[in-house]
Amino acid sequence: MEKWPIGVFASVDAGLGVKLEVAHELGVPTIQLHAPAKATRTQKNADAFLSRLNQYGIELTCVFGGFEGESYADIPTVSRTVGLVPPETRAERTKEMKEIADFARMLGCKTVALHLGFVPHDTGSSLYQEVLEVTRDVCDHCKKNGQNLHLETGQESADGLLQFIGDVKRDNLFINFDPANMILYGTGEPIEALRKVGSYVRSIHCKDGKWAKNPGQEWGQEVPLGQGDVGMENYLRTLQEIGYEGPLTIEREIPQEPDRQKSEIGHAIRLLNELKAKIG
Ligand code: MG
Q1: Bridge partners for 208 per DSSP
Q2: Ligand 1 centroid to 31 CA: how many Å?
Q3: Distance of CA 178 from the midpoint of ligand 1 (Å)
Q4: pLDDT > 90: what percent of the chain?
């Protein structure tokens, strides 16, 4: 793979990403895929999807798990509903995450990722231990599939994430770095965070955001790439510095406005190509 191929976050059925046709029209060579609903996760659909990818010349670089009942409405709702942290849904979602990893394997994809949820800060708490256990369980399942598991950033500070990954103690656990999420959740300055966690970063999102008035208590605002507080040139220079050469996967979470989503992703592609030419 060339250095820094452009990518886009895509969906098969429901989800936050663009449709595969849109990725093709935009001319991107790679996608990350939001895992489709259970009924869609069959070998037959995997084969059909793979043949469309081949036809378009698009490489699938990562499959993202997501679950029924998750809501990103505000920070307390995320804490209550997202990922494998909430105890009520954990067993069922863990099973589903393994099924998603198996679907990714059908697609020949060696990377699966997810928002784990808010990892408790108290490393001595029983909830923290439970989240360690469930993460090991999913990592071990992925390992059998020959896959790595990437944790999406945002809900933890860089230090919190390093502590957690160290405590999980699995060699196939890495990071999908999303600089905008650090801003949206108010968990730390993204460039500084990227330097700290750099050695674990194996995939990334290109997304932008503006700080909230009270970071960590209320949401920041997701904005088109280049218009927020991340600083895209600095972001790419820092990716260069940590030796990251994988896809630059654009994520713009406005699936309810597909025309605007497509046009803004088009702008993002142009911006990233300009920066790539400049930075190399
Ligand atoms: Mg993201």
Answers
A1: 223
A2: 13
A3: 5
A4: 90
Distance 114 CA to ligand 1 centre (A): 9
Note whether 31 and 58 are within 8 A (CB).
yes
Give me ligand 1 centre to Cα 55, in Å. 27
Write the burial class of residue 55 (CB in 10 Å: 0-12 exposed, 13-18 middle, 19+ buried). Answer: exposed
- Residue 177 Cα to ligand 1 midpoint, Å, equals 7
Q: Which residues pair with 171 in a beta bridge?
A: none
Indicate whether 1 belongs to any domain: no
Type of residue at 23? A
In a domain, 136, yes or no: yes
Question: What range does the domain containing 209 cover?
Answer: 6-279
User: Residues 137, 143, 148, 153: what is their CA dihedral angle, to the nearest 10 degrees?
Assistant: 10
CATH number at residue 105: 3.20.20.150
Under DSSP, the state recorded for 39 is G
For residue 193, the model assigns a pLDDT of 98
Is residue 55 over pLDDT 70?
yes
Dist CA 244 CA 247 (whole Å): 9
Evaluate if residue 195 carries a pLDDT over 90.
Answer: yes
Within-domain flag for 111: yes
Tell me which residue of 112, 122, 175, 150 sits closest to 130, measured CA to CA.
Answer: 122
If one counts the domains in the chain, the total is: 1
Question: Do the domain assignments include residue 216?
Answer: yes
- Encode pLDDT of 127-155 as tens digits: 999 999 999 999 999 999 999 999 999 99
pTM of this structure: 0.96
